[in-house]
Write a structure and sequence with these properties.
This protein is α/β, with parallel strands linked by helices. 37% of the residues lie in helices and 10% in strands. It is built from 6 helices and 4 strands. Helix 2 packs across helix 6 and helix 4 packs across helix 6. The longest helix is centred in the C-terminal third of the chain and has 21 residues. The N and C termini lie far apart (31 Å).
Amino acid sequence: MYYSMERRHVNNVERDLLMIEFGKISLMKILFVCWGNVGRSQMAAAIYNNMTKTHDADSAGTEVDVPGESLLMRAGRTDGIYIINAMDSVGIDVRRSKRTQLEQSMLNKYDYVISMADKKHSPSWLRSNSNYIYWHITDPGGKDYQTTLQVMQTIKRKVEKLISTGIQIGR
């Protein structure tokens, strides 16, 4: 049986069959969300895409001050180089990753939206979305490199578990 790799809307039964046939969530689109789309969501999307060898994950932030800015450009205007260095340590380059402002209209493009943004930084329309999953992960913003590495390792473990056991993890 052949399935097009193009994104298509499928009902839950079809999705589950595709997940079984193609190995869990490899055909699912996932949006990772954090506050500023600088750290956690960027790391999660890059790790997911690297592990699955796909481009099925994207990232966005609930309060992005400079949409479209690359992480390298941001690092040049702030002291935010720790995310880049942490991801370099596992062989993933996020320098050109662009920051994206989360918009309600984006949610329909994804099978699941996994947010790491605190409730106070999350709009109610995000939290009430039927595909919303919350992961409690410390924001590494303003913290040291070691903390950023620990956050990255936590995200990596959660993404590994997500891939190996399916999307129900974290609900």
